[in-house]
Design brief:
Blueprint: H1 3-9, E1 11-13, E2 27-30, E3 34-35, H2 43-81, H3 91-119, H4 121-130, H5 133-142, H6 150-159, H7 161-177, H8 183-210, H9 221-224, H10 227-240, E4 243-244, H11 251-259, H12 261-291, E5 298-300, E6 303-305, H13 310-329, H14 331-352, H15 358-396, H16 404-423, H17 425-440, H18 444-466
Parallel strand pairs: 3-4
Antiparallel strand pairs: 1-2, 2-3, 5-6
């Protein structure tokens, strides 16, 4: 049965508004929880039923994406414990285990970005959540035996990329639910809730695998502990989320997004913001262990507590702030500032680490994570704004222009594609740091290269979107 038929034969569901109206608008919900009359840009629809429905879907999207990030980051934590558990691995192999989930996750984001339109947001959220059982189960099995070959460990680390792919489909889904004026805040909350998974994993996993260990490690728990939560999240998404009939596959819209040069500019900027967040999140535990081994963990009630979780925690919490600031001041302006701050902080790290001591190192990295989080939110908010501005410019120039919905679909496709390209930074940063260690014995060379990249990206954002003669200047992009 097609989605059109399902909606046609479906029932009408009313969600009562918070203030009474004479004739409140209703949701047309068909079998499979397909909504057939979604129009977030209609103020009356949004007030009567849209906002409440969007919030429900956002809540469970955040939960499932949160677990996706947990799974995505597991190997960055477990890899640190493998030598102590009896695994004979070289430093380069450990860096590959840390970076492989980002490589696969970034690649999966490309097809994942189309899955919402193909199968429905609710349906794909359930499927993508259940797929997380594969990497966590595989990890639990593999790390129980120190003789497990490296290629199996690397394969399972790659499967953890399922968690990274979830971000693209989740963000594409949520952008359909919210009106343009609230997309920045909604996307920021959705992304921040997911990003928090990296922090929670880095806080909870070391505790779980070391608590009452008495000289041993319970590494399989790093995977097993998340299975009940994954099953519960999938069930809640199945029961409470919706599919939107308007979220249809639009190949022409996707191709138009790829042909838009500004999409590639934003994608490069996103490598610098989100790529830094996820890349540093993955490698931060190892950076602390290598640079300040005495501070790599603290014994608390029989468990090892690592402070590495503070970095991704701050980066996650500042992401919605970046979206909100972008809504108010323009995404490009905030992104430029974020890159400038990141360049200064990374230069300070290069100049003072490790001589400055652990607490200075930790403080600088926490600020760096915070700046990258703001940049994540502001850069991502630029996507719908830039596509809308491009449509207006084309219409003003008299060129044939797509309809508003097709512009929305292009922006939705771009959200997934940009998130995919940006996530490759999560692979590049650990690899750059590993190469720096291999070539110089330390991380300083990699830090200086990051300084130059952040300065360049800040200039690129200014040239394209804030320069006085730019067609996007003053547009809110």
């Amino acid at each position: 049965m097609t989605h059109d038929v399902e909606v046609a034969v479906g029932h009408t569901e009313q969600l009562m508004p918070t203030t009474s109206t004479a004739n409140p608008m209703r949701l047309e919900v068909g079998p499979g929880r397909w909504i057939g009359n979604w129009d977030a840009e209609d103020p009356r629809f949004w007030k009567d039923v849209g906002r409440r429905t969007a919030r429900v879907n956002l809540k469970y999207s955040i939960l499932c994406e949160f677990l996706g990030f947990v799974v995505w980051q597991l190997w960055s934590i477990v890899a640190i414990y493998l030598p102590a558990a009896g695994f004979d691995l070289e430093t380069t192999e450990l860096f590959w285990l840390i970076s492989m989930p980002s490589l696969v996750g970034a690649t999966l984001r490309i097809p994942y970005s189309f899955m919402v339109a193909r199968f429905g947001g609710r349906n794909w959220t359930v499927v993508s959540a259940l797929l997380l059982l594969v990497p966590v189960g595989g990890m639990a099995w593999a790390v129980a035996d120190p003789t497990t070959p490296f290629w199996i460990l690397l394969t399972l680390a790659g499967l953890a990329g399922f968690g990274g792919g979830n971000f693209a489909s989740s963000m594409a889904n949520i952008t359909y639910f919210y009106p343009a004026r609230e997309k920045g805040w909604a996307l920021g909350l959705n992304a921040a809730g997911g990003n928090l998974g990296a922090a929670v994993a880095q806080l909870a996993v070391p505790v779980a695998v070391t608590v009452f260990a008495a000289g041993t490690l319970h590494l399989p728990l790093a995977g097993l502990m998340w299975m009940p939560f994954i099953v519960l999240a999938a069930f809640l998404a199945l029961r409470n989320m919706h599919n939107l009939s308007q979220a249809r596959s639009d190949l022409s819209g996707s191709l138009a997004a790829v042909r838009e040069p500004q999409m590639w500019v934003i994608a490069v900027l996103y490598i610098g913001t989100f790529g830094s967040f996820i890349g540093f999140s993955a490698v931060f535990p190892k950076l602390i262990k290598d640079s300040f081994p005495a501070f790599s963990s603290f014994a608390v009630l029989g468990a090892a507590l690592s402070l590495a979780f503070l970095g991704p925690l701050v980066g996650s919490l500042t992401r919605p702030l970046g979206g909100r600031l972008a809504d108010k001041h323009g995404g490009a302006r905030i992104t430029i500032a974020a890159f400038a701050v990141m360049a200064v902080l990374t230069a300070a790290l290069a100049l003072t680490s490790p001589a400055g001591g652990f607490w200075w190192f930790l403080a600088l990295f926490i600020l760096l994570f915070g700046a990258s989080g703001v940049g994540n939110g502001s850069t991502y908010r630029m996507i719908p704004a830039v596509f809308t501005r491009r449509a207006h410019l084309s219409a003003r120039a008299g060129r044939r222009e797509a309809t508003a919905i097709s512009t929305e679909r292009q922006a939705a496709a771009a959200l997934g594609l940009v998130s995919a390209i940006g996530a490759y930074g999560g692979f590049l940063i650990p690899q750059a740091l590993g190469a720096s260690v291999g070539a110089t014995g330390g991380y300083t060379a990699a830090f200086w290269s990051f300084v130059g990249i952040y300065a360049l990206l800040s200039a690129v954002a200014w040239f394209n979107y804030q320069r006085a003669s730019s067609p996007f200047a003053g547009s809110g992009a």
